[in-house]
Amino acid sequence: MRFDQHRTLRLLHLPKGLVLRISAYMGLAFLHLPLVFIALYAFNDNSAGYSFPITGLTLRWVSLAWERDDIRAAIGLSLSVAAMATFIAMVLGTLTAAALNRDRFFGKNAFTTLLILPIALPGIVTGIALLSAFKLMDVTPGYWTIVIGHATFCVVIVHNNVVARLRRLSARLWEASMDLGADTLTTLRYVILPQLGTALLAGGILAFALSVDELIVTTFTAGSDKTLPIWLMSQLSRPRDAAITNVVALVVMLLTAPLIILAWRLTRDGDAKPNTH
Amino acid sequence: MTEASAMARTALPALPTLGHSWRNSLSTLLYQRRTLTLFLLLLPPLLWFGVVYIGSLFTLLSQSIFTFDEMAMSVSAELTTDNFVSLLNPANYDIVLRTLGMAVAVTLGTVAIGFPVAYYMAHYAGPRERGFFFVGVMLPMWASYIVKAYAWTVLLAQGGVIYWVLRQLGLLPVLEAVLRLPVIGGDTLATSNLGRFLVLTYIWLPFMILPIQAAIERVPANLLLASADLGAHPFKTFTSVLWPLAFPGVVAGSIFTFSLTLGDYIIPQLVGPSGLYIGNMVYTLQGTIGNIPMAAAFTCVPIVLITLYLALARRLGAFNAL
Amino acid sequence: MGIAIAFKDISKHYGEVNALKQVSFSVEEGEFFSMLGPSGSGKTTSLRLMAGFEQPSSGSLSLLGQEAAGTPPYARDVNTVFQDYALFPHMNVLDNVAYGLMVRKMPKAERHALAQEALAMVALPEHGQRTPAQLSGGQRQRVALARALVNRPRILLLDEPLGALDLKLREQMQVELKVLHRKLGITFVYVTHDQGEALSMSDRIAVFNHGRIEQIATPRGLYHQPRTRFVADFVGSANVFAADVAQALCGKRQSFAVRQENILVSAAGSAPIDGALLMPGELLTVQFLGASQRLEVQVGSQVITALQADKSSGSSSLIESNLLEAGQPVTLQWLAQHMVMLDD
């Protein structure tokens, strides 16, 4: 009996790291499997849909996609909505992070929950709630309704980034600045905001990416406008356009990827780089 | 001696803060009245969230006690509890159970697949490898939801990759046997609960990996070493030391998988057998039919469930792991 | 010389915790005033009240003759050197030092010149372009000092500035700070938990304990005439004897302290010194410290520590003889004038 236990133990110990490693990489591969196929179908020579295996590769879909007006309109709308929503989220998110940076105050927990709600509750709830409110106020869905929806759940993303950075800032910096003669506003300008810079930027990037990709809430608040995800969804009922759909998806992926990596690098580096003035 | 006297020579300009301009008064006021500053900081966000978000939530939820006239297809403000009562109809109740069941299954699935990834990232990966994994997990998260979902339908289709691979490996009979199983099976992979489970698990996987990774990172590596040193079998170390400490991360991740599954109406449409989820139901009700009261009643289910779950999660320490 | 800082019945509490309990004292202009005590004793709180980072819960605080309540830190003629230096990481050293001048809207050329002079004063003239991250602990501390001093405050507050430095550097900085103080002629208020530091640098020391001041005196005054048991033990090391021991020895019913270096340990039976008070005991340990030796003697239920010169020298045979050994019965002797009667 003991001998067997030993063997099993050894079998589990030695390759234990290996088993874990394989599972981890397999999990990662699982995550990327469909993305590979999106790329594959984006260059599929056979325009008759999604048969497998692929018969040949071509780049012609890329140029065709670029010439389509509806694609450019959708991309344009998504970008401008994201820009405006990100701006609002950055302002509000900084304010909330600054407010919540203090020690406890009445209602702090409730407020934090409030911030998380738009992301915690299913998108469909937020979407319908906003839509019914707009209808009640006789507001026609359009650019601003989309922006309002997006800004609301983007706030918490900026908030989290700024709070994490504020937590790393020594309280002494604030005191040191005041000790040297700078009042609140001056301290904010010369000491705090430069420190927050990269965290704000990272939060903004993530909020931007989230806004560009958002589908569910947008479906309800967009009315007849088509943001990029909405356009993509409408394409799904057109298998003949499969390749173009995949091209657009692939391009969006390739464009968002470096932004996400940048945002991640910014939050990892921590302290702001020094600059003389 | 010379340094001190040189410095003493140039006169320093007066501190601007000693004057009495409006700016100084404002600054001093903000400094002394901490509560006022707090209030001013919170006012814009409070207004936004209060008016926009809570306000619209309220208009929705308040309609759940309104009446829907099926003849006229219009909503009237007569108060009634009919909508909530009809939630208990077998048909509607089935919808809730079905959605809830899948949410639980997906949560478990993401933990099963995601935990090794998270653990590897947190403790075994070298710094460069960890960066590689981070990017590798985050990128799919930001790739378009709808395209990922549709790519899966293609993968799962009978003319698609998975069938092709299984056919080559001669494992097709195995798949067909699985598909004959009662709950998880279906006609084809793409119209089975198994398929739906795969897609949902895939889509929410990054949301589970990252919080778990963050939680495990906070477990000092020497705790696990200590456990082994004290003679614990690796599995015992896992159950007694690693899992309890990583648990808040699991709970944090489960907030997302739960919530996202409860409200999803797109993937259930694309993949899986017929049979509505809460999301589909709500979508159909508020859409062409216009039965907002019933739709609102349905949305109360995930709202209540998630609020309860959030409260539970906070108790379990998940908010620190977010 | 007037009064730089005056505390009148100052109390400060944070919720349930009472950090300061009706503390009153004053600091004279131009003096080097130290606040000494263990952590949590209230010395740092007092410093923060002076700087303006906190407001007293009750009592009145005046700076340079003016009531300071409600004045924010940026309006006080006081500058602080923080324990962790608090240099701005996103600016280089020169901009850090010139910060206070920049806030006053001084033109760039002028403020950089003054900052450069300040850096020269703390012996870092070449370091202007570096960033704080590139400096060692000692260098950062000097930059923090320069940053405070360039604004020519009338009062400089220092919050355990040498805590993070190693011994040699600390001793060097102590000397430099003392020299600076003399050169500049401004008021220094220095917080430390290291009694040796306080003794070597200060004009006067206030000993804090549990939110109250136990004694304020000059270094020598504190050392030779501690008023309470706490001060006797915190400043230098003393043996504290209970009141009944005093009663038995010399008739006075009051606890007293005798400094370690004032107790002579001699073999039992050897001739006592004229006029000395005697106490028998058993020698426990002898520690050779180079120029001196530390002996621990069991007297009743107490262990008394004595520090005396180690006179062993000469040929090897003589060194090891004439030494006291552990377990040997000994007599403790001290002169009555070295007995310090305590208030508690």
Can you characterise this structure?
The complex is a heterotrimer of chains A (277), B (322) and C (344). With 277 residues, chain A is mainly α. Chain A has helices spanning 2-13, 16-42, 60-67, 69-100, 108-120, 123-136, 143-168, 171-179, 184-213, 216-221, 228-235, 242-269. In chain A, helix 3 crosses helix 12 (242-269). The model of chain A is unreliable at 1-12 and 270-277 (pLDDT under 50). Chain B has a single domain, classed as MetI-like fold (Orthogonal Bundle). Chain B is mostly helical. In chain B, helix 5 crosses helix 12 and helix 12 runs antiparallel to helix 15 (292-315). A two-stranded antiparallel ribbon of chain B has the order 1-2. Chain C has 2 domains: 3-226, P-loop containing nucleotide triphosphate hydrolases (Rossmann fold); 238-341, RNA polymerase II/Efflux pump adaptor protein, barrel-sandwich hybrid domain (OB fold (Dihydrolipoamide Acetyltransferase, E2P), Beta Barrel). Chain C has helices at 43-51, 93-97, 99-103, 108-121, 137-149, 167-184, 195-201, 219-224, 229-234, 243-250, 316-320, and strands at 3-14, 17-28, 32-36, 58-63, 66-67, 78-81, 155-159, 187-192, 204-209, 212-217, 238-241, 256-259, 264-267, 276-288, 292-299, 302-309, 329-335, 340-341. In chain C, the strands form 4 sheets. A 6-stranded mixed beta sheet of chain C has the order 6-7-8-3-9-10, sandwiched between helices. A 5-stranded antiparallel beta sheet of chain C has the order 13-17-14-15-16, with no helix packed on it. The longest helix of chain C has 18 residues, at 167-184. Chain C is elongated, with a radius of gyration of 25 Å. Classes of the chains: A mainly alpha (277), B mainly alpha (322), C alpha+beta (344). Chains A and B meet through helix 1, helix 2, helix 4, helix 5 and helix 6 of A and helix 2, helix 3, helix 5, helix 6 and helix 7 of B.
